[in-house]
Amino acid sequence: MKFSEFNFEPSLQEGLDSMGFESPTPIQEQAIPIILNNKDLIACAQTGTGKTAAFVLPILNKLAKEDTHSTNTLIIVPTRELALQIDQALQGFSYFTSVSSIAIYGGSDGSVFETEKRALTQGANVIVATPGRFMAHLNMGYVKLDDVKHLILDEADRMLDMGFVDDILKITTYLPKKRQTLMFSATMPPKIRTLATKLLNEPEQVNIAISKPAAGVVQGAYLVYDTQKNNLIKSLLEGKEKELSSVIIFVSTKQKVKELDRDLQKAGIKAKAIHSDLEQNEREEVLRNFRSKQTQILVATDILSRGIDIEDINLVINYDVPGDAEDYIHRIGRTARASSTGVALTFINEYDQQKFFQIESLIGSEVNKIPLPAHLGQGPVYAPEVKMKKPAFAGKKKPFRRNSNSSSSSKPQRR
After folding, report:
1. Is residue 136 located within the same domain as residue 223?
2. Block means of pLDDT (10 residues each) for the chain, length 415 residues?
3. Which of 40, 49, 100, 201 makes the best surface tag, with the fewest CB within 10 Å?
């Protein structure tokens, strides 16, 4: 099938042609006709399947047919990165149309807030917003949503995990009851279906490749102690600059991100870290440089595992086993995008083996365990049936202790 078969408005089709979009992905092929037919939709599709275009294109097609200066579509997303990504897609696809859009998210300064306020009062056609920031504007009383015809919830499962369900329900009370509601989610737990029954009216359903890694991902895992992880990273990356033009390393905490980043810098491996302690403009600059290949290696917390549309990633490394089996799918989904191929490696310490076994059960196959390089020594044996208990202070700072020779009034000293 070709995009031209959807009979989009000429101005929208021109944008697709200029961007080299010819054939829709399965989620686009199934979802676009439903949305064009004004039906509510609940769609389940893993990351990297093209779901952003699946809802953006039919909405833009409707907007291209009418000359409106009010807010027509509200897209709610869990993170500022995803808001920016969708807004960038909107700008690209709508280049030859008169459609206007804006991304609204937290973490920016007062001047940006004023820009957002003008867009909300003057009527940008499409608003892409994170729940908390949008609620801040709603509480001011100036947001005009009377003409909204489409509500889209993207990464709905993520928003529920992050505790945004009350904000979402509150936002819907400001919207016209007669509207089209679209819900996109990477997973479909019972809580998502419960939310869908509250917000959607007799929705159509589309399910694409649930809980399965992309076919082009070559998966592997290393059994490794935490003390060996940084040296293993360096062994994998040193001297591979030409072979690996784009690498993401996912780490469980921002403290570990900072430590690994420092270690890589000392080893002469050029990497950039991204985490919540960075200012928003710093995070955006890091992502821009990574997209443009000026930065080859990105060390990131899990905030990037969903919703960031970066193609041509050669290698994804899970420095820690993801806490949720579904998150593994999203992390390794950063590679092998758009029918390409890529490699995803996971480091498994002695405490995370049961978690990784659950991942293997979810994807329905055993992941190849790769021997450690000889110079690193032996790693732990893979025995997921044996539950290992982490030490009480594993991964934490040691507590303050009083010196046994000092009085009770003495200041505490670090051991």
Report:
1. no
2. 92 88 89 96 79 94 88 93 88 91 80 85 90 93 92 91 91 95 87 90 84 74 96 91 86 89 91 82 85 89 61 86 74 64 90 88 86 94 75 45 39 38
3. 201
Look-up: residue for tokens 């940084």?
Answer: 230
CA angle 22, 28, 32 (to 5 degrees): 110
Mark whether 98 and 184 lie in a shared domain.
Answer: yes
Domain range holding 53? 3-208
Q: Report the distance separating Cα 38 and Cα 344, nearest Å.
A: 39
- Distance, in Å, from the CA atom of 262 to the CA atom of 254, rounded to the nearest integer, reads 12
**pLDDT value of residue 398:** 40
**Rounded to 5 degrees, what are φ and ψ at 356?**
-70, -35
Determine, yes or no, domain membership for 42. yes
pLDDT of residue 402: 39
Amino acid 311: pLDDT: 66
Distance separating alpha carbons of residues 121 and 70, to the nearest angstrom: 9
> Is the distance from CB of 57 to CB of 32 less than 8 angstroms?
yes
d(CA 246, CA 167): 36
Residue 385 lies in a domain: no
Q: What per-residue confidence (pLDDT) applies to 164? A: 92
**Tokens 């290992």, located at residue:** 388
DSSP 248-273: EEE-SSHHHHHHHHHHHHHTT--EEE
Contacts of 162 (CB under 8 A, 6+ apart): 78
Query: Dihedrals φ, ψ of 369, to 5°?
Result: -95, 120
Q: For residues 250 and 339, state if they share a domain.
A: yes
Asked, for residue 415, whether it belongs to a domain, the answer is: no
Q: Which helix (H) or strand (E) holds 361?
A: helix 353-363
Identify the CATH number of the domain in which residue 371 sits: 3.40.50.300
Q: Are residues 276 and 233 in the same domain?
A: yes
Looking at the whole model, is its pTM more than 0.85?
Answer: no
Q: Give the total number of structural domains in the chain.
A: 2
CA distances from 318 to 46, 243, 315, 333 (A): 18, 19, 10, 12
Q: How far apart are the first and last CA of the chain?
A: 67
The pLDDT assigned to 326 comes to 64
Residue 151 has, within 13 A of its CA and on its CB side, a CA count of: 21
The two structure tokens encoding residue 189: 């737990």
